[in-house]
Specification:
Strands 2, 4, 6, 7, 8, 9, 10, 11 and 12 form a nine-stranded parallel sheet that branches. A three-stranded parallel sheet has the order 1-3-5, with no helix packed on it. It is 16% helix and 26% strand. It is α/β, with parallel strands linked by helices and 170 residues long. It has two helices and twelve strands, in the order αββββββββββββα.
Length: 170
Amino acid sequence: MGRGKKRRKVKQKLKRKSGKLVRFCLSNSSKKYSGFSNKFCYQTNIHNLIYKDAIFDNVKFQNSNITECNLKNTKLTGVDFYNSNLKKSKFENAKLKDVIFFNCNLKNTDFKNTKFENVFFISTNFDYCKNLNKEEIIIIKEYPKIDNQSLIRGPIRKTRNNNAKDFPDH
């Protein structure tokens, strides 16, 4: 192991001990992976991996790159993809339950014969997806507007100082 790699490993170890997030990076492996559960993955880089017949349960991917992965026959339950890149991944014959795709890149992602149950696509461009059955999913193109001012003022009123008169009660 070279000096540069040793230093990187020592820095990662110190970050883990202090409770900071350490990025997970793995690419181009021929090994078949089984998935994982109860995990928060921040800025994970997964490229060209095989998750065939894997199980993902209660996982949140945030700002992650999951590109060209094989997720055939995979079961995803309670998985959230926030601001993630899923370009060229394959979800063929997968079962998605309680899954959220929020602001994701799904260019050339294949959903052939995928079963959807309570799956949301929020602010996500799915125009270039392959084999996506739009009748089985819930599409939200933009944030809903809140017209009720009492919903907005309620939390602000609780957090402000009692002497301040910034927001009158109407």
